[in-house]
């Protein structure tokens, strides 16, 4: 899906739509495995949409009820509070949706594998920045939760660690063998890439009013990482 890789113009809008649709589809599939009524599924699906678009605090019970096509009383029939709804929403996101997203992203990386390490960096950085900005409300909510839930954080990080070992490590080894990449463990390299991308996007995730120029930011981040991860005597 080149529109995700490029994330500019009409293709950038495509990336936003596709990333949100991917989350919604994975979330809907996760709800089918739970002992929920159709109305309860509708309520949780509405919460995902509204929390992602408006944020947790700005979403009212009426908003949820209207989008789910249920009464306001039905919203809290199973989940007694708005926080209860959030907890019910985040659990499948961490255990089902995140693994699916990780698997899909690893597949994208494998399909966009390039002989040039800089091109590899450009794809990862641009793709993840576009994803983060288009889902900033939901990511903000998840950040608040995982910082206070060590088990959920361990679960999420473990899933990405497994994905790195299975998919990315062989790709990085090829770049190392061709002299394009410093001889560090794959997890260290990906942690360096991830921390740089997160550090760049975090202000824009936390501040809705701020807009990130993904093209410009990608060039700067790729320049920084390409130099920092290049093999040399300093390493």
TrEMBL record:
DNA-binding region (UniProt annotation): 60-79
Keyword Glycosyltransferase included in the entry's annotation: no
Keywords from the UniProt entry: DNA-binding
Domain HTH tetR-type: 37-97
GO molecular function, one term: DNA binding
GO biological process, one term: regulation of DNA-templated transcription
Keyword Signal on entry: no
PROSITE patterns linked to this entry: HTH_TETR_2
UniProt protein name: TetR/AcrR family transcriptional regulator
């Amino acid at each position: 899906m080149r529109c995700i890789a490029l994330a500019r113009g009409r293709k950038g809008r495509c990336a936003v739509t596709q990333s949100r649709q991917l989350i919604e589809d994975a979330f809907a599939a996760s709800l089918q495995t739970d002992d929920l009524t159709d109305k309860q599924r509708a309520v949780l699906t509405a919460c995902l949409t509204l929390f992602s678009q408006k944020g947790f605090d700005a979403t009212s019970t009426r908003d949820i009820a209207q989008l789910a096509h249920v009464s306001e009383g039905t919203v809290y029939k199973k989940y007694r509070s708005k926080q209860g709804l959030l907890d019910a929403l985040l659990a499948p996101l961490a255990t089902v949706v995140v693994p699916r997203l990780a698997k899909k992203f690893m597949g994208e990386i494998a399909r966009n594998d390039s002989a040039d390490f800089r091109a590899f960096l450009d794809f990862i950085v641009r793709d993840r920045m576009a994803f983060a900005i288009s889902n900033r409300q939901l990511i903000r909510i998840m950040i608040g939760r995982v910082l206070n839930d060590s088990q959920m954080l361990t679960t999420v990080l473990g899933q990405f660690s497994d994905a790195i070992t299975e998919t990315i490590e062989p790709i990085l080894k090829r770049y190392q063998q061709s002299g394009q990449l410093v001889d560090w463990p794959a997890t260290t390299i990906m942690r360096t890439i991830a921390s740089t991308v997160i550090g760049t996007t975090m202000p824009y995730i936390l501040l809705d009013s701020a807009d990130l120029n993904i093209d410009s930011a990608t060039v700067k981040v790729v320049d920084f990482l390409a130099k920092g991860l290049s093999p040399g005597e300093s390493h």
